[in-house]
Specification:
seven-stranded antiparallel sheet; 10 strands; 20% strand
C-alpha cells in the first residue's frame, strides 16, 4: 500500500495529466471540432467570464467571502465523495484502502483534469481529488478487468477511453459536469479508483486551502467500505495553530 498522508496525495498512476493527454482519452474528435466551431462563432471570452467546473465565473466568485467559498467547497467535496462511493460499488462493496485524506482543496491552474478556464492559475483556482485502492483475487491486469467500470461509464452516457499507462491498464470518463472518474488495474492485483474535479475559481487558493487545513483534524481511516468519508469541517470548528 502506498503510504498515506493528510494532504490528499495520490500515487503515480493517478498523476494529473496534461491537457493534451486528457484529450487523447476521449473517443473521437467530434467534441474538439464542435468546440472550435463554437469559438469561431462566438469569439474568445475574457478570463472574467470564463466558467469554471461548476459554471461560475470569476466575477461571480469575486463577490463571495472566504466563508462563502469555504461552504461552497464543502458542497463540492461532498459531490465528489458521492461519485467516488458510487464508482466503488461498481467493483466491490468490500473494504478499500485509503491513500491519504481527501478534504483539502489542491491548487489547480493547469494541474486539474479537463480544460482549465482561461486565466486559471494555481493562485486563483482549486480542485478536489480522492482515491481508493483494492486488492482483488483473480485480477489479471487484462482488458477484461476494465469491463465493469467501462459498462458503468457507458450506462451513464459518459465520454470515456482506455489506455495502458506504464504497466497499468486504465479507463477514465468525463462525467460532463466537472468531474472525472479513473479505474486502474495493475499486474500485482492492486486496482484503484480515482475521482478528480476540474478547476473551480477562488479569490485566493492559499487562503481557502489554509481555512480548510486548520479546521481539518485529518482523522481518515486506513481502510473502509464505499460511502465512508471524512466529514468536511464546519467554519465554526476549532482552528488549529
Amino acid at each position: 500500500m502506498t503510504s498515506a498522508s493528510d494532504d490528499g496525495a495520490t500515487d503515480a498512476s493517478l498523476a494529473v495529466p496534461t491537457r493534451a493527454r486528457t484529450a487523447r482519452w476521449l473517443r473521437g474528435s467530434v467534441a474538439v471540432a464542435l468546440a472550435a466551431l463554437a469559438l469561431a462563432m462566438t469569439g474568445c471570452s475574457t478570463a472574467a467570464d470564463a466558467p469554471d467546473a461548476a459554471g461560475m465565473t470569476r466575477e461571480q466568485v469575486a463577490e463571495l467571502s472566504l466563508q462563502d467559498e469555504f461552504r461552497l467547497a464543502g458542497k463540492r467535496y461532498e459531490q465528489g465523495q458521492a461519485l467516488l462511493a458510487e464508482a466503488q460499488r461498481q467493483i466491490s462493496d468490500g473494504t478499500w484502502l485509503w491513500n491519504g485524506g481527501d478534504v483539502r482543496p489542491l491548487a489547480a491552474g493547469g494541474n486539474a483534469f479537463g480544460e482549465a478556464p482561461d486565466g486559471a492559475t494555481t493562485g486563483n483556482s482549486y480542485f478536489f481529488r480522492a482515491a481508493r485502492i483494492i486488492e482483488r483475487d483473480g485480477a489479471s491486469d487484462a482488458a477484461a478487468d476494465l469491463e465493469p467500470m467501462q459498462r458503468y461509464f457507458d450506462d451513464k452516457g459518459w465520454r470515456s477511453g482506455s489506455a495502458k499507462v506504464g504497466t497499468d491498464l486504465e479507463v477514465r470518463a468525463d462525467t460532463g459536469d466537472g468531474w472525472w472518474v479513473t479505474w486502474s488495474v495493475r499486474p500485482n492485483g492492486q486496482s484503484s479508483i480515482g475521482v478528480h474535479s476540474e478547476a473551480f475559481w477562488t479569490n485566493d487558493t492559499k487562503a481557502l486551502v489554509r481555512a480548510t487545513s486548520v479546521r481539518d483534524p485529518a482523522t481518515f481511516p486506513d481502510a473502509s467500505k464505499p460511502g465512508v468519508s471524512e466529514p468536511f469541517p464546519e467554519w465554526s470548528d476549532p482552528v488549529r495553530h
